[in-house]
Every structure is written in C-alpha cells, then in structure tokens.
Specification:
- The chain has two domains: about 1-40, HU Protein, Chain A (Irregular), CATH 4.10.520; about 40-93, HU Protein, Chain A (Irregular), CATH 4.10.520.
- It is an alpha+beta fold and about 90 residues long.
- The radius of gyration is 19 Å and the shape is elongated.
- The strands form two sheets. A three-stranded antiparallel sheet has the order 1-2-5. A two-stranded antiparallel ribbon has the order 3-4.
- The protein has helices at about 5-15, 20-40, 85-90; strands at about 45, 50-55, 60-65, 70-75, 75-85.
C-alpha cells in the first residue's frame, strides 16, 4: 500500500485530534518546509527516520536507450535518502 499525503492528513486528524482542515494545513506546511530547504541545497534530518541529502551530479556521458546514441547528460542536483539506524533496526529486526 502506498501512503499518500491524504492518508497522512487523515492519520494526523485521527491521532492528534486537530480538525481535518488544520491537519491538512500542518501536513502541507511540513512538506513545503522540506521542499524549500532542499531547494536551497540544504539537507533535511528527521531524527529516528532519516536524512534527505542534496547531491550534485556532474556532467556525464549517457546513452539514448532507443537509439543507443551516446549523449551528454547535464549537471543536476538530486535528492537521496539515508535511513536512520533506528528505522533500519525496526525494518530489519
């Protein structure tokens, strides 16, 4: 099962006791804070969960899968996720 933003809003509503609209505001605000932080190139650490890390990828050779032609891929930033030790132990007891 995939957990959607709406699922998270419903769980906040049920477990925290905020109204449905307030729960949605809280979740939206949290997601927005994470997005803005990553856009600035900063990492996001959520203790007990993991760390979202912004990495820079250099210009590199690639290949067009349809034609097999070699192409140059432009430099870009990507986000990776490093799981915390606490969560890793829960997933792999």
């Amino acid at each position: 099962m995939t957990v959607t933003k709406e699922t998270i809003v419903n769980r906040v509503y049920e477990q925290v006791g905020l109204s449905k609209s307030k729960s949605k505001e809280v979740v939206e605000a949290l997601v927005e804070i994470i997005k803005r932080t990553l856009e600035k190139g900063e990492n996001v650490l959520i203790s007990g969960f993991g760390k979202f890390v912004v990495r820079n990828k250099a210009k590199r050779k690639g290949r067009n899968p349809k034609t097999g032609e070699q192409i140059w891929l432009r430099p870009r930033r990507v986000v990776t996720f490093k799981i915390s030790g606490v969560l890793k132990k829960k997933l792999n007891p």
